[in-house]
């Protein structure tokens, strides 16, 4: 597998805790950021659900093959408002992906539309399959390497 994802053993515990005790927006643990990841041709595509997050609050960083996505969603009601229900997660969202050596971390492309952050990470040239010509005798053949 060309891309490894960091697992967070506490994410499920956080989700259950928030269900029973509520989330006040001041949690020190980052909220979950659901994602899909798949290969499409010569790219890996990763999509993160970030509904209600401003594109200005999204921070994307790559360091030593670790890609970090951070985003923040603030409450959209004021201090004087009387909140009846506050179920939508807010605060800081964070996710890290460990990119394998077969991916080109220097050429990550990002776009944000309709609450979905899409990253396209190309497969490194040296990791792509290529044909190697074999010569010998009277015939010339090509095989996949």
From TrEMBL:
Gene3D superfamilies: 2.60.40.790. It comes from the Bacteria. InterPro entries: A-crystallin/Hsp20_dom, HSP20-like_chaperone, Small_HSP. Residues 26-137 form the SHSP domain. PROSITE patterns: SHSP (PS01031). Belongs to the small heat shock protein (HSP20) family. Pfam families: HSP20. This is HSP20 family protein.
């Amino acid at each position: 597998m060309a891309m490894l994802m960091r697992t967070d053993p506490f994410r499920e515990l956080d989700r259950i805790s928030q269900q029973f005790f509520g989330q006040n927006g001041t949690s020190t643990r980052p909220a979950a950021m659901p994602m899909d990841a798949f290969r499409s041709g010569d790219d890996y595509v990763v999509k993160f659900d970030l509904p209600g997050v401003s594109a200005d609050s999204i921070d994307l960083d790559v360091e030593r093959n670790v890609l970090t996505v951070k985003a923040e969603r603030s409450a959209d009601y004021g201090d004087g408002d009387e909140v009846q229900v506050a179920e939508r997660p807010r605060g800081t969202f964070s996710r890290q992906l460990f990119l394998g050596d077969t991916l080109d971390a220097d050429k990550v492309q990002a776009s944000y539309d309709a609450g979905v952050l899409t990253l396209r990470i190309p497969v490194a040239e040296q990791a792509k399959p290529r044909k190697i010509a074999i010569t010998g005798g009277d015939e010339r053949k090509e095989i996949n390497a």
